[in-house]
Specification:
The protein is of the alpha+beta class. It is 67% helix and 9% strand. A seven-stranded antiparallel beta sheet has the order 6-5-4-3-9-8-7, with helices on one face. The chain has a two-stranded antiparallel sheet with strand order 1-2. α6 runs parallel beside α10 and α12 runs antiparallel to α13. About 1% of the residues have low confidence. One of its GO terms (biological process) is actin filament bundle assembly.
């Protein structure tokens, strides 16, 4: 719903701006009432004139700004909008309000209806900030789509030249500048008006009306079973078919959902390039003009159903969102780069200020050194003046006291020698002071450098300690895992040895059992042979002794030795045979 609201606001912004005749940013309340009534009509929202009066009830009878109108627009109109209104009618109403003020028809090579479609496309591709503009990337995308629809070749060099001449003070074009760019034929040279109009209409159908594919195909009827040519229009959730491509006489819809599917059919009944669209309630049999068209329609319908299953928007809307997100990402990266550049510039300025401060300190130090040198020279000049005076006085004294020159010449020589030593000491003292001052400055510089190096060394040492600790932990963990694996290996080897020993024991027992089985088998065979020969002898002589065999279920006779091994009938038979033998003897 948020995307629909943003799209509606763009067209309403054009209408509000058109009503602002003196470009003051405000519109009279009477005009806003008319605008609100028209918006409620085309958006199919119940109009409440009392709410408008209540919202603007104040003592100020003057015009209302865009910011003042937005709360009413959001609360009483946009929040009540459902997706059941005619978007073309809504855009046409806003276009009617702003076209007379902004469009110069005499300079255009396209019709007003084509200019309206370009205006609607502009609102779709423009940025989500006001005043509305379309950036060069979206201009290039639109011009490429138009050129492709006209069947021409894209001239990248021509567009690059256009971008070079683009005004650096502007981030993009307004709607009217875009209409002028397309209408003056700069990027459609060699194309007639009809071709340009058809290209604008094709791009308008794709981007605004969400037409994914359209064209003539044959459709088989559900009742008469006859084939009729229809103009099919594929949208994200429906396929509509019309009598012709002017879309005036609509014959029906094929509602698509995630359960629909499309299948290719073999040629039959004289019809070729057949495919089937299976929906929940009905099945539609379609015949394309050729195999390429058939494959294109099958792929387009399959992609549409797949998008319905994923709940994704149409491809051109998803591509527009990706382009906007990419531009936002590039803008964020550019802002971050500018922020880093400003930070570097600030750091550079701080360094410059620091260097300037050091330079001033050096100049002050040089000034102090010059003052001290001046004082030293002045002191030396005073000393020289004093020495000259004393020398003159000595000359006078020498002239006056020539007789004492000889006596005090040695003292004078010593005194002069002492003066020279004092001068040398004074010069050395000045040099030592200068060296000491320079050494202090160097020491201060070295001390700061050492402090910085110590801080860096401390941070590096702490980092090395962390790395060392992490490495020790990793080594300990590896050692523990290694010991555990070694223990598991030893246990597995022991278990394997025990299993091998058990297997050998079982093999030995099997061999012994096999030998015992062979012995028992041989004994059984011998016993069987002996029993057979003994049974034959007993049966031959028919003695009283009989082999023990499974008895019958009849009652057994009892002898002195226990249960008899013969029955009563056998006993009677044998008695009869004995009597016959005695009779014959």
């Amino acid at each position: 719903m948020g995307g629909l609201k943003d799209e509606l606001l763009k067209a309403i912004w054009h209408a509000f701006t058109a009503l602002d005749l003196d470009r003051s940013g405000k519109v009279s309340k009477s005009q806003l009432k008319v605008l609100s009534h028209n918006l409620c009509t085309v958006l199919k929202v119940p109009h409440d004139p009392v709410a408008l009066e209540e919202h603007f009830r104040d003592d100020d009878e003057g015009p209302v700004s865009n910011q003042g109108y937005m709360p009413y627009l959001n609360k009483f109109i946009l929040e009540k909008v459902q997706d059941n209104f005619d978007k073309i009618e809504f855009n046409r109403m806003c276009w009617t309000l702003c076209v007379k003020k902004n469009l110069t028809k005499s300079l255009l090579l396209i019709a007003e209806d084509d200019a309206f479609k370009v205006w609607v496309i502009f609102n779709f591709l423009s940025e989500d900030k006001y005043p509305l503009i379309i950036v060069p990337e979206e201009i290039e995308y639109l011009l490429k789509k138009l050129t492709e629809a006209m069947g021409g070749g894209w001239q990248q060099e021509q567009f690059e030249h256009y971008k070079i001449n683009f005004d650096d003070n502007k981030d993009g074009l307004s709607a009217w500048e875009l209409i002028e760019l397309i209408g003056n034929g700069q990027f459609s040279k060699g194309m007639d008006r009809q071709t340009v109009s058809m290209a604008i209409n094709e791009v308008f159908n794709e981007l605004i009306l969400d037409v994914l594919k359209q064209g003539y195909m044959m459709k088989k009827g559900h009742k008469r079973k006859n084939w009729t040519e229809r103009w099919f229009v594929l949208k994200p959730n429906i396929i509509s078919y019309y009598v012709s491509e002017d879309l005036k006489d609509k014959k029906g819809d094929i509602v698509l959902d995630e359960n629909c599917c499309v299948e290719s059919l073999p040629d039959k009944d004289g019809k070729k390039c057949l495919f089937l669209i299976k929906c929940f309630e009905k099945t539609f049999e379609i015949s394309a003009s050729d195999k390429k068209k058939k494959q294109e329609w099958i792929q387009a319908i399959h992609s549409t159903v797949h998008l319905l299953k994923l709940g994704s928007p149409p491809p051109h809307k998803e591509a527009r969102q990706r382009r906007k997100e990419l531009r936002r990402k590039l803008l964020a990266e550019q802002e971050e780069l500018e922020r880093q550049m400003k930070a570097l510039q600030t750091a550079n300025e701080d360094k410059q200020q620091e260097l300037e401060s050091v330079r001033k300190k050096l100049e002050e130090a040089a000034s102090r050194a010059a003052d001290e040198e001046k004082k030293r020279l002045q002191t030396q000049a005073e000393l020289q003046t004093r020495f000259s005076t004393e020398l003159e006085r000595e000359k006078l004294i020498r002239q006056q006291m020539e007789e004492q020159v000889a006596q005090k010449s040695s003292e004078l020589e010593q005194y002069l020698q002492r003066v020279r030593e004092l001068e040398d000491m004074y010069l050395k003292l000045q040099e030592a002071l200068e060296d000491e001052r320079q050494a202090r400055q160097d020491e201060e510089t070295v001390r700061k450098l050492q402090a910085r190096l110590l801080e860096e060394e401390s941070s590096k040492r702490a980092e090395l300690e962390r790395w060392h600790l992490a490495q020790q932990q990793a080594i300990q963990t590896t050692e523990a895992e290694k010991q555990e694996l070694e223990q598991q290996r030893v246990l597995k080897e022991q278990a394997l040895q025990e299993a091998m020993a058990q297997l050998e024991q079982l093999e030995l027992e099997r061999k012994q059992a096999l030998e015992q089985y062979e012995g028992v088998k041989k004994k059984l065979e011998m016993a069987t042979n002996m029993t057979k020969s003994w049974k034959d002898k007993v049966a031959h002589h028919e003695g009283l002794i009989r082999l023990i065999e499974p008895g019958s279920k009849n009652p057994h006779l009892i002898t002195n030795w226990g249960p008899a091994a013969f029955t009563q009938a056998e006993l009677e038979e044998r008695e009869k045979s004995w009597k016959e033998k005695k009779t014959t003897e």
